Amino acid sequence: MPTAATPGSGRARVSDVAAAAGVSPTTVSHALSGARAVNAETRERILAVARELGYVPDRVASGLRRRRTGVVGLIGDDLAATPFAGRIIEGARRAGLERDVLLMVAESGGDAEAERDLVARFLAQRVDGLLIARMYHQRVDRPAVPDEVPVVLVDAAPEPGWEVDAVVPDEAQIATLACERLMREGHREVAYIGTIDESRAARGRLIGVRSALGDAGIALGDGRLEFCSSDAAGGREAGGRLVDQPAPPTAVICFNDQIAMGVMQAAARRGISVPAGLSVVGIDDLHPVADALDPGLTTIALPHDGMGRWGMTRLLDRIDGTAPPLGEGLHLVRGWLVERESVAPPPARPSR
Question: Structure pTM?
Answer without folding.
Answer: 0.79
